[in-house]
Every structure is written in structure tokens, then in C-alpha cells.
Amino acid sequence: MEERVVIVGAGQAGGELSAGLRKQGYQGRIVLLGDEPHPPYQRPPLSKGFLRGKVALTDLYLKPLATYERFGIELRLGTRVEAIDRSTRELALQDGSRLGYDKLVLATGGRARRLRLRGEETTHLENLFSVRSISDIEAMRAKFVAGSRLVLIGGGYVGLEVAAVAVELGLRVTVLEAAPRLLARVTGPEVSSFIEQLHRERGVDLRLGCEVQGFELDEAQRNVRGVRIACHGAAERLDADLVLVGIGLVPNTELAAAAGLAVDDGIVVDECACTADPNILAIGDCANQPSTFTGGRIRLESVPNAIEHARVAAATLMGKREPYAAIPWFWSDQYGLKLQMVGLSAGYERCVTRGSAGGKEFSAFYLAGRRVIAADVIGRPADFMAAKRLVASRAEVDVARLGDAAVPLQSLAA
Ligand SMILES: Cc1cc2nc3c(=O)[nH]c(=O)nc-3n(C[C@H](O)[C@H](O)[C@H](O)COP(=O)(O)OP(=O)(O)OC[C@H]3O[C@@H](n4cnc5c(N)ncnc54)[C@H](O)[C@@H]3O)c2cc1C
């Protein structure tokens, strides 16, 4: 009988894996199951061009539908997997049917973290949104109009991208961030203050160290009309026409956990994307893997990670061993500026900068000893290419020369 690989989750990682397997010459059946109504699509434009109305729906799709047919990939959309039976190697689908597998790949991604206020759910509110899927954007579009007052809870990259689009579309935007500076977990203070300035200059009302205390609802109790906040101890009420919650992602690990697979901030896999069950792999946002880069374990949420993880899994399924070794990197677009990040700055000892924040081009290099472990680059693409090489090489650098913009970065590795 023909071998069958079943992939759960038709997102970036699942889509890349299905096509990658065929490109590597996989001869068996490939079934790609997704609970959304769309074929695999890119999420980055959701908070950028798609929200702005500049990117068409079909341009989000990773591949045209016809490609899946041509590749002999059985794409089943609107199909939710409810359970995995490891003893019979079968999946229970939402429609009550069962589907057998020889190899199973979990590419279930994650969902937007919900806001709970005083322990209460807020999901029933009609003008409260999150940004994870096409349907999230479609739901908010009618309210995303000039003059509307948008209160954005959470100042992460995705939230800040939405703030930038909102400003450009003429909404009045307030961003509420609980931490004392923006992006505090992922960047140094220099980059935080650059981004804060970028948004303030465009009229965003940015509140740092700010806690949401509660909502005031309309008579029907269906829409938020006001957001009660406390900033540095001072209470205030903000008017709102729409509220967006951007407080992070929860990995979709429930299927794996219920099947007895190890879960620890993601489905636990080895460097070849394998769980402890030899027939089950996990990739992308939902997977927690060893990192040759940090020496510990890591769960990444980025397109480059989804692509690389899909490549590693395709190799594993083809009987090869190609451990994950890529350096983490990520990008964000705000107000036409490209922000690019490479490496992980956690635990850095000092930060060296090039360029000028005022000139809207700026690079920050994070060092542990004399090694560059991460860099944030804004509007200096050549720096980014060189920074990627510096981080990957783990070479020691001359710190004074690193800070001297006249010295070509390429010449720095000692
Ligand atoms: C608004 C936004 C902007 C972003 N911008 C950037 C960016 O600029 N740069 C960058 O690098 N990354 C960005 N990302 C992150 C990037 O899109 C993700 O890291 C990437 O999509 C992860 O791919 P994935 O396949 O692991 O998960 P996903 O793309 O989330 O796909 C998982 C799929 O599995 C489905 N699924 C889950 N459970 C089941 C089930 N039981 N049965 C069937 N289907 C199921 C989900 O509905 C989903 O369709 C952004 C993300 C968002 C939301």
C-alpha cells in the first residue's frame, strides 16, 4: 500500500512542507488538512498591505490552488482535526470521519492570546478584534475607517504594524503597553526609543507602563465604548470605536498533548522535527525545538522559521537527516520603513549602534563579550546582510570598529 503523510495545519509551514516533499521526489500520498477556508497563505501582509487594502486576497496565497492539484497534494480545507489515535494511527475529523496516516506532521501554528479582564472572557464583544487570520481582518475592516478611535492593547510588532496602517488610513490611535518601553523582551532600549519616536511623530498616543482595568460597554453590552486604564497609577478613561488585542500567541498544542506527546511551550521535537513518537513530527509556530544557536530550546514565530522547519521535516520524511541549524531572523514594516532582526538579543552585555535614529536609518548590534549575538537593522539593508554573517560566524569583533560607520561591516570578523 502507498505510504500516506498527513499534515495537520494548512498554514505557512504545512503549505511549504507539502510542496517541498513533492519537490524532493516523495512518491506517496500527501494529505494537507486545514480548518480555515483558505489554502495556505502568508500572514505577514495581514497587518500590512492586506489591512491597508493594497494586497488582494489571492495574492496572500502561497501557491495557486491548481498547484496543489498538479503536485498531487490532497488539500482539504475547512477540515478540523479533533484527535489523534496513536495506537491505530488515525485522526478523528470534525465531521465524524477518520483518516489513517503512516507519518503525521503537526503544523497547527497558534492562536491570538485572548484578553481576560478580572477573569472574564471578552470574546463576545463585537468591536474587539485580534489579528491572526484573514477572517480577523475581514471582520474589522468595516470599522477600520478614517476618524475611528482605535485602542490597541499590546505594543508588539504585529500591533505596531496595525497602528502604522491605522494612522495612514486616518484612524485616531492609542497604543497601550504594560511594559515601561516598547518591545522590551526582544530589543534594547535604543531600538525601543527609535520605534516609540517613530509612532509618536505620526500622532500615535503611546501609553507605556499602562494597565487595562476594564471596559465600558454600550447598552446592549455588545460593544466597547470606553477603556479604563491606569498609567503609572493614574486612572483614565479612553473613548473607543474599536479595540484590538495584540498580546501574543498561544501555540496550538492541544491535539499533541491529548495524544500524550510532550508539550512545553510548544510541541517538543528534536533537531530533525521529530516528536518522541517515530511517526509524528511537528513544525513551525507550534513546535519547540533545540537551538544550536542558543544551546537551549526555543519556539520561534516567524516565516523564515516555518520555511526552514518545513525543509528539515521534508528531509526527515525522505529518510535523510538534516538538523535545523538556521539563525533566527524576522522582519517588520512600519510607515514604509523596513525593520530587520537577526539572532536573539536576550542576555546581551552591550549594544553598539551605527547610523542615526533621526535620519531613520539605524543599526543596533548586541554583543556578548566580543561576539555579535543579534542585530536590529532599520533602513540599512546592507548592514543587515553583513549582520547576518557576523551573527552566524560567531567571530569576535573589534568593538570600536563596529561602532565606526566608516568601517565596512564586512571587514569586521577578526
Ligand atoms: C498579522 C501577522 C503578521 C506577521 N508578520 C510577520 C513578519 O513580518 N515576518 C515574519 O517572519 N513573520 C510574521 N508573522 C508570523 C508568521 O506568519 C508565522 O510565524 C507563520 O505563519 C507560522 O506558520 P505556521 O504554519 O507554523 O502557522 P500558521 O500559519 O498559523 O498555520 C497553522 C494553521 O493550522 C490550522 N490549524 C490549527 N489547528 C488545526 C486543527 N486541529 N485542524 C486543522 N487545522 C488546524 C490553523 O487554523 C492555521 O491555518 C506574522 C503573523 C501574523 C499573524
Could you characterize what this model shows?
This protein has 414 residues and is an alpha/beta fold. It folds into 3 domains: 176 residues, FAD/NAD(P)-binding domain; 132 residues, 3-Layer(bba) Sandwich (FAD/NAD(P)-binding domain), CATH 3.50.50.60; 76 residues, 2-Layer Sandwich (Enolase-like, domain 1). Helices cover 23% and strands 31% of the residues. The protein contains 11 helices and 28 strands. The strands form 8 sheets. A 5-stranded parallel β-sheet has the order 3-2-1-7-21. Helix 1 packs parallel to helix 9. The longest helix is centred in the C-terminal third of the chain and has 15 residues. The mean pLDDT is 94. Flavin-adenine dinucleotide (FAD) binds next to helix 1, helix 9 and strand 24.
Descriptors:
single chain, 414 residues, alpha/beta, FAD/NAD(P)-binding domain, Enolase-like, domain 1, 3 domains, five-stranded parallel sheet, 11 helices, globular, binds flavin-adenine dinucleotide
